[in-house]
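Quick one: sequence plus zinc ion SMILES, need structure tokens.
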Amino acid sequence: MVDVNIKLKLKEMLKLNSKTIDNRFDVIIDKINNGEIKKVVFLLGAGISVSSGIPDFRSADGFYNNLDPSLLTIRSKKDIEMIKNNPTYLLSSEFFEKTQLPLLETKRSFILELLEKKYKPTLTHWFIRLCHEKKILHHIYTQNIDNLEVQTGIPQDKITQLHGTIDKAICHFCYNIYPMNDFYEHMKNNIKDIKDEDNLTKSKKLLCNKCNKPGIKPDIVLFGEQLNENSFDETKDADLLIISGSSLKVSPANKIPLSVPIECSRLIINNELPFIPDFLEPDTFDLFIEGGCDEKFLEFASYLGWTDDLIKLIKKNKKNISEKSLELLLED
Ligand SMILES: [Zn+2]
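Reply:
Sure thing.
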């Protein structure tokens, strides 16, 4: 871990960006600073965790498209073909109900790495934590299963994990919560590591201690399962919705921008303009700030006059921030 000697190259950054910042951004900054914006809701996606080093699962070069299904414990040739044609079938409830092991084998290294806290929250996560300290964080809706929001110490009741979390193990059939330590040990010792092709042992099923079926898995939502749509209630009195790191391709998350009140500002901070579904007009959004999440939230903090507070918070938690995010704060 690099030593923390945080000095910002802030002036440089402001110069680079001052011309491109829309004055609507100034309005948002003013409203936060004068207390008109009191309730900020975040809608978060995978992009905010990129600088923590979490592997890219979904893109064309991502994990699933490069996975060799013959390494997995799958008996039926038809299933192997189906996965070759559509890798997401691996993560469907239909397939999991037939056989437990391929999902656990696919997720093994990610789960172990997360549970061993290999991945740390990013500057973006800490910016959100700062919003909590400033008492303007109203709620977080996250599509991420990495639990990094919780790792910053933001209270769990302010976070809705729309796609579930890897931090809990549950039975798919009877919803029994399975002891996390036992789950971890099983994943480590009894599920084969498909990355280590020379050393493929045989995986063992993990039976539920209540219904006795092979249904234990991380508490993540599988394809074909109902997503947690029950409560977008927290959006109803939002003053500002910040969407970051999400491509807005997946429902129900992409309905959140419609569920905020009409006077709520909607701000997108993302490295590309998200996909805007038919039911969302581009002018649903007030402002799109293009760029890496960490870089843009760092600038955001500077416009708010929060830089010192952000640095203080990060210094206090320097063992709990990703190296990439920390490097961004360091002078070279
Ligand atoms: Zn069960």
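The radius of gyration is 21 Å. Residues 171, 173-174, 176, 208, 210-211, 213, 215 surround zinc ion (CB under 6 Å).
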